[in-house]
Amino acid sequence: MIKNILLPNLGEGVETAEVSEVLVKPGDQVAEDTPILVLESEKATMEIPAEMAGTIKEIFVENGEQISTGQKLMSIEISDADKSEKKIVPKPEIEKGKEKKEEPKPVEKKSEAAPKPAQTVKESSAAAFASPSVRRFARELGADLSLINGTGTKGRILKEDVQGFIKAQLTGRPVANVAQQPEIDFSQWGEIETVSLNKIRRITGERMTAAWQTVPQVTNFDKVDITELETMRRTMQKANGSDSAKITLLPFIMKACVNALKEPPDVNSSLSTNGQELINKKYYHIRIAVDTSEGLMVPVIRDVDKKNVFEISQDLAVVSKKARDKKLMPDDLAGGTFTISSLGGIGGTYFTPIVNPPEVAILGVSRAKMEPLHDGSDFVPKLLLPLTLSYDHRVIDGALAARFMKFLNEQLSDVKNMSDTKIF
Ligand code: CAO
Predict the structure, then answer these.
(1) Residues taking part in catalysis
(2) Residues 118, 59 share a domain
(3) How far is CA 63 from CA 91, 132, 154, in A?
């Protein structure tokens, strides 16, 4: 026998609600009380359970549709085994941002100061947006809903989000927890265009969120006098001719960074996953942020300590072209030990780059400008290069970061200090 399931009375003063999720599809076998639909009204989200066991035949509503009491939701073929009907009662409404508090039950007093983890999970989860069955599921697994990023309509947390969260916890992977913003219709204030983010931007977004949330970061700033270095660079560029790769400041900065990385080894390191050990690397593979039309790519230039400025310029030209032509292979992106992000070709004074785990530091390079510098008796025009170092404070102290920057400054401001470096 086929029966229609109608929207029951949702309660006093609630005539309509929006379908926020259809939980079944035609052909699905459902047991009595299986949630089949999630509805959302101004103040609440609620589940509509199947009033009887059977097979879903047809669905008459869709996500986002406004439906009202008595409306036909779906048809169901009732199995002979269970023809007993039951009045549909929507599962208890959950007010958005609130959860019905259970009456506190008397508990055995074990220790005055003993923490109550279950209680903590419940309270912090209360503001999350999830259906009753998902809340129940999360509660059973001990998952804190407030830490889970909902991928359902309007950021609602789905069962799969809870499963993904638990899986990530078990494998030790950081969970990208983006605080959900309320959905806003921006077109009410003017013309808009909605564009899907491509894969590179989505992955960058996830990585940056995870890095921002898992790495306690600090940024140090410095300005370096590169007047002399710039004169040398121009001379080298001229001598090199226009047929070879352009020699910009970046290869010199990369060489100076490698020298600084060799000083205290902590900056060229990674923290072990258990956070108990520091893995110092004896190789110097520098990652370079490359701006492409598809988004940010960060290929690696290997063994920078063993290459001269011409070879690095050549490598830079090759990897940035590969990045912009979308030809980078996984190997081109793997194994970096320290990153440099240079916006010097574009402009601006200072920016704070985000550390790229498992690396522990990143250098931001801004545009060099002629500025007056006091030499003790007079102001003299100098070319000053703004540098920023963002670092993982679990590994690098402020003093170590300041020493690293001082060393870098000494290298770049006086080319003699780079004399033992393989520049030429
Ligand atoms: N100060 C002054 N001038 C600079 C400079 C600096 N710090 N850095 C570069 N320049 C000059 C170069 O000398 C070059 O000048 P000419 O055209 O007169 O020869 C010009 O700016 C353009 O340089 P470039 O950007 O092509 O070359 P580069 O070696 O400096 O950088 C690359 C290469 C791939 C890093 C760069 O092209 C790039 O993509 N940068 C963006 C990185 C990025 O997006 N970072 C942000 C990440 S965080 O969101």
Answers:
(1) 393
(2) no
(3) 19, 18, 11
Give 376-423 pLDDT, tens digit per residue.
Answer: 999 999 999 999 999 999 999 999 999 999 999 999 999 888 766 665
Residue 170 belongs to domain with CATH number: 4.10.320.10
CA distance linking residue 203 with residue 111, whole number of Å: 46
Ligand 1 contacts (CB < 6 A) are: 246, 248-250, 288-291, 296, 316, 320, 341-345, 353, 365, 367-368, 385
Which residues, listed in sequence order, are joined to residue 386 by a DSSP beta bridge?
223
Looking at the CA of residue 250, tell me the nearest atom of ligand 1.
29
* Co-location of 159 and 303 in the same domain: no
pLDDT in tens, 142-163: 787 877 877 776 677 888 888 8
Q: Are residues 321 and 386 in the same domain?
A: yes
Top mutation candidate among 240, 342, 390, 408 for ligand 1, by most atoms within 8 Å of CB: 342
Best mutation site among 225, 248, 286, 321 for ligand 1, i.e. most ligand atoms within 8 A of its Cβ?
248
Rounded distance between C-alpha atoms, residue 147 and residue 125, angstroms? 8
Structural domain of residue 248, as residue ranges? 215-418
Does 69 lie in the same domain as 143? no
pLDDT range class, residue 37, cuts 50, 70, 90: confident
Which residues sit opposite 22 in a β-bridge? 37
